[in-house]
Design brief:
The chain is mainly beta. It has one domain: Thrombin, subunit H (Beta Barrel), CATH 2.40.10.220. Helices cover 14% and strands 44% of the residues. The protein is built from three helices and eleven strands, in the order E-E-E-E-H-E-E-E-E-E-E-H-E-H. Strands 5-6-7-10-9-8-11 form a seven-stranded mixed β-barrel. Strand 2 (26-33) and strand 3 (40-53) form a beta hairpin. The chain is globular, with a radius of gyration of 17 Å. The protein starts with 11 loop residues before the first strand and ends with a helix.
Length: 218
């Protein structure tokens, strides 16, 4: 997704919270990235907080120095490698506040929080990260816009989950296939010439059913 390193860095991570937590609050969370076999458990401390939207706060969580940084540096390094490899990351992301649901009963509610030419950021609302959503999981987004329906494929690039319930799990998705028509429509959205249409609810798919038909049939 675009601007990954604005959310995840070598010294800390920025996440949105449903509560205004005081500076100094301790967290334990997992960080996962493509290309690294194991997730990394990290302890962190809230270093600063600011209101990002009514009822939501942006937390800057600073990592506490682990006994060994080998695993953490491996995960962060893979994210940075992806950022350098994807020249589209030079372009700005557009903040979103769009609810999203899966085409399955009793699935969680998601929230799209930003989008770029490279991908989209997603929060999981009201629960843990579903076990079927892992780094590398195929992904599809469908969203009605004023100029047509955007339908793009991708894969989960990274995930941040907490053992506390103060902020939602967050997922970064990298777009992997964009047709010429979808690329043009995405450009219209990024330029704010096309906007989500009421009722502002996007559809998501994860797993085999999210793969393009040609790839799924192989």
């Amino acid at each position: 997704m675009g601007e990954l390193t604005r959310s995840v860095g070598r010294g800390g991570v920025r996440v949105e919270s449903r509560r205004a937590l005081p500076v100094g609050t301790k967290f334990v969370f997992e960080l996962k990235s493509a290309g690294v076999k194991d997730s990394v458990e990290i302890q962190g401390t809230v270093a600063s907080i600011s209101e990002s939207a009514p009822g939501r706060w942006l937390l800057h969580i600073r990592y506490e120095q682990p006994h060994s940084r080998e695993g953490l540096d491996a995960v962060i390094g893979r994210i940075f490698e992806g950022a350098r490899a994807d020249v589209k990351r030079r372009h700005a992301r557009v903040p979103l506040q769009v609810r999203a649901v899966e085409d399955k009963p009793q699935g969680p509610v998601f929230r799209l929080r930003d989008i770029s030419r490279g991908g989209v950021g997603i929060d999981v609302e009201g629960g843990p990260l579903p076990s079927y959503i892992e780094v590398g999981t195929p992904f599809m987004l469908q969203m009605k816009l004023t100029q047509g329906t955007l339908a793009v494929h991708g894969e989960v690039a990274w995930a941040v989950t907490s053992k506390q319930d103060s902020f939602p799990p967050q997922v970064g998705v990298r777009f992997t296939q964009l047709s010429a028509d979808m690329r043009r429509l995405l450009e219209e959205l990024l330029a704010l010439r096309a906007m989500p249409s009421p009722p502002w609810i996007a559809r998501l798919r994860f797993g085999a059913e999210a793969m393009p038909k040609a790839a799924a049939g192989r």
